[in-house]
Amino acid sequence: MPYFDPARPSYLENPYPALARLRREAPVAWIPTLQAWVVTAWDPLAEVLHDHASFSADPASAGGEFGARVRASRARIPLGGAPIMGNSDPPLHDLLRRRVNRWFTPAAVARLRADVERVASALLGDLPSDAPVDIMGSFAERLPVQVILHLLGVPASQQAAFRTACLAIMRARNEGAGNPEVVADAANAVERLDRVLREAPPDSLIGRLRGEAVPEELPPEHLLMLVVHLATAGNGPLALFIGNAVLALAANPEAAEALRQGSVSWVAALEELARFDTPTHVISRWAKAPVALAGRSVRPGDTVHLVLGAANRDPARFSEPDRLDFGRRPGRHAAFGLGVHFCLGANLARLEAEVALRLLLERFPDLRVLSVERLPSFQLRGPRRLVLAPPSSFVPVRP
């Protein structure tokens, strides 16, 4: 299928025509250039996400030589044996999630609204009012980082170093043991983060996790990786969610005006914006054993890329899926995942996106996009840079 090339600039700009064709011709397709299966239709995608016996969220649990290589690499990196909640399977996934669920319930997240508004307003207040602004680097990327570190209880003076350490650990996890410098950076980061955990205020999220941890159920290295995951997992996708939403609203000014005037529900609008241009565009699973999927034979160790963005535009599930429609009848989409791996931070993401978009619509009444630079990624979709023109009549951000 030579027309399907995720590295092609036209695909990065608009992948949906190629994904629609792939869904029509082969909803579960083997793509040689990716050496993986690509799933673009709703039904087989949902099947994979609910079949934990056949498909794992962790490549180390894959069957065949592939899984063995991942396990061998992990054994040589710091925290390599510690599970990541988003990439673990039941029952371990459920144990980890139970430890933190109560901080991400709708009621718990609602109590954070004032904090999110304060952070967002301060970030926008630092932007120039009379010059073009890249809202990704100056606002969308910074908002989720500051909010989650505040929720974790990391003091402002330690946040930069804390985030650097978390990213060093995740880089080693993603790249494996092949780069000694990356492994050494991760080892140093583990030591620094371990001190942060020991010194965290007892009433902070980190402090409570540490105080409640039962070593037999949650060993120290597992607790540390859980904190790293919470600190890093949703920041990029949420920033891209905000960027994608701004682009969609700029291209659909009547929808933007409806939000400004309060004539449509923010709840419905956020769900539709997430469905329409899904930031976590692809998630992956790995086959544990031979399995049939939509008539195709998947082998142990095979990688299966699930294109959430394509499933969210499957016409078999969504009427006129390529149209942004805030009046669309409510229905489950896959932007936050499905099943046990439904995004832990979905409620927080919705709150942050609502606050961010409210303030951006207020600050930029005409919402004029000057330039867009796309993130060169198959897994994530959204702008790396998104430059907005200064408003024709500046509207100050609320304090």
Structural summary, described in words:
The protein has 399 residues and is an alpha+beta fold. It has a single domain (9-388), classed as Cytochrome P450 (Cytochrome p450, Orthogonal Bundle). The protein is 49% helix and 10% strand. The chain is built from 18 helices and ten strands. A five-stranded mixed beta sheet has the order 1-2-8-5-3. A three-stranded antiparallel beta sheet has the order 4-10-9. Helix 7 (113-125) runs parallel beside helix 18 (346-363). The radius of gyration is 21 Å and the shape is globular. Residues 394-399 have low confidence and may be disordered.
Spell out the helices and strands N to C: HHEEHEHHHHEHHHHHHHHHEEEEHHEE
Count helical runs.
Answer: 18
Query: Number of DSSP strands?
Result: 10
Radius of gyration: 21 Å
End-to-end distance, in Å?
Answer: 53 Å
In one word, what is the shape?
A: globular
CATH architectural designation: Orthogonal Bundle
CATH class call: Mainly Alpha
Tally of discrete structural domains: 1
Report the β-strand fraction as a percent range. 5-15%
Residue-averaged pLDDT? 93
Q: Can you tell me the CATH superfamily?
A: Cytochrome P450
Strand order of the largest sheet: 1-2-8-5-3
Biggest sheet overview: 5 strands, mixed
Layout of secondary structure:
Elements: H1 9-13, H2 16-25, E1 28-31, E2 36-39, H3 42-50, E3 55-56, H4 64-74, H5 92-100, H6 106-110, H7 113-125, E4 133-134, H8 135-140, H9 142-152, H10 159-175, H11 180-199, H12 205-212, H13 220-232, H14 235-251, H15 253-261, H16 266-276, E5 282-287, E6 291-293, E7 296-298, E8 303-307, H17 308-311, H18 346-363, E9 369-374, E10 383-388
Parallel strand pairs: 2-8
Antiparallel strand pairs: 1-2, 3-5, 4-10, 5-8, 6-7, 9-10
